[in-house]
Design a protein that fits this description.
209 residues; mainly alpha; two-stranded parallel ribbon; two-stranded parallel sheet; globular
């Protein structure tokens, strides 16, 4: 449901402890020369910007192209994503919310960094930042402006609070002029940010760039 401030999250202290352990282990491995920090960064970037978001883009493209699949996605996103092979930890209890002419959806995790890894990969650093988590609830239109998105004043912005129990996928509006496009081509217009709600799908002119 939209943000109401009362969702149960994964314990923040446990996440902080785990993060500290991971960072300590990484530092030790780098110090010993067992791993290359550049290689680690490259792997992280791959999961943040390529592998995961491509999965979600396929889900969105299928929803754009197939009305029956769109209906299944909006009714049970977990099952619909699994149809395309995307499931597992951090992807359970997935809910799809759809943008429309008068509605724009924005996803945040107000207490930690709950995120649908199975369809979006690893969460970007800004998604986990305290600044984003606070401002998304207090001033969502301002957050969108920070990302270069300006919506008409009459558009309702709905903020969804992702939790350990429910994670959200935004289905952005399909760009005009893409009727009849194949799914693979449509997927090229779907960005990670558009599936979080901090961005829009690319216009048709940017397909393949």
């Amino acid at each position: 449901m939209p943000h109401d401030g009362h969702h149960a999250h994964e314990a923040g202290t446990e996440l902080s402890e785990m993060d500290a352990r991971v960072r300590a282990l990484e530092s030790l491995l780098v110090e010993k020369g067992y791993v290359d920090p550049a290689a680690i960064e490259a792997i992280v970037q791959t999961y943040e910007t390529k592998v995961g978001p491509r999965n979600g883009a396929r889900v969105v493209a299928r929803a754009w192209a197939d009305p029956a699949y769109r209906a299944r996605l909006l009714a049970d996103a977990t099952a619909a994503a699994a149809e395309l092979g995307y499931s597992g930890r951090q992807g359970e209890h997935l809910v799809a919310v759809e943008n429309g002419p008068g509605v724009h959806n924005l996803v945040v995790c107000t207490l930690c960094s709950c995120y649908p890894w199975s369809v979006l990969g690893l969460p970007p650093a800004w998604y986990k930042s305290a600044a984003y988590r606070a401002k998304a609830v207090i001033d969502p239109r301002g957050v969108l402006a920070d990302f270069g998105v300006s919506l008409p004043a009459g558009v309702e912005i709905r903020v969804w609070d992702s939790t350990a129990e429910i994670r959200y996928l935004v289905v952005p509006e399909r760009p005009a002029g893409t009727e009849g496009w194949e799914e693979e081509r449509l997927a090229g217009l779907v960005t990670r940010d558009s599936m979080i709600g901090t961005g829009l799908a690319l216009p048709r002119e940017e397909a393949g760039r």
